[in-house]
Amino acid sequence: MRYFIFTAFFSILLIAGGVGETIYKKKCASCHAGYIPMGKLKENFVEYNNTKLHLKAPTLNQLSFRLKQKIGDPTGDKEMQMMEIAAFVKDYLEHPDKAKSVCMKEVLEAFDTMPSMKGELSEEEIEAVVAYIYAFDEKSLSSHSVKYELFDKALQKAKKEHKIVMIKATSPYCHYCKIMEREVLSDKDIVKLLQKGFVSVAVDVYKDPLPQGLKYKVTPTFFFLDGNGKVLKVIPGAFNKEDFAEVLKDVQK
Predict the structure, then answer these.
(1) Does domain 151-251 have CATH number 3.40.50.300?
(2) 152-161: b or e for each residue (b if 16 or more CB lie within 10 Å)?
């Protein structure tokens, strides 16, 4: 029964999201740009005060991520959270106020308060837009991030293609794992490096044991193995783009 409800919810989410995308493009996209990598957004706001990208408002992937992190329980029931987000968005559209915003301070400082959109969208349209925004974060992250393989397949592929297996030990409660996934492991230059010389594996250590009896002390931890399963290096901790690129190049020496 639970599986049926779960499947039905995401079927509704998919349908509503399609309608929501059309409404979003018509009513929101002129100010809220689509996907921009988190690393570039961070650079734009923290280092350049929005003088590099000249954005009019938070991007769609920023909205999607921050709404799911700040409204409702991000680890709880998805349908309930989406209802809470819809209520928040409706209130914010009608009565915009920076004090209520879910965005970070340095992001808000770059923008004026949006004008009220009271009466411009029906409740059904708001719900459809929220469904689209809600799904966008994971969808965009998945399409831009490194692709992960199961360990056995990764080992075979690494041996055949003379590549290195990279195992990422992660967890759903690891703050720095999430930052790396969004700012580093979805960066096109890092993805290119990984695609060229590595086969990537991700292990949620809260759900599954690491292969070959590997042990970790912190998350994230990166294990690098050759095609025969021999451990080449173990690198604990999170890195920015430049430092992680150096890690990958060093492993290949």
Answers:
(1) no
(2) eebbeebeee
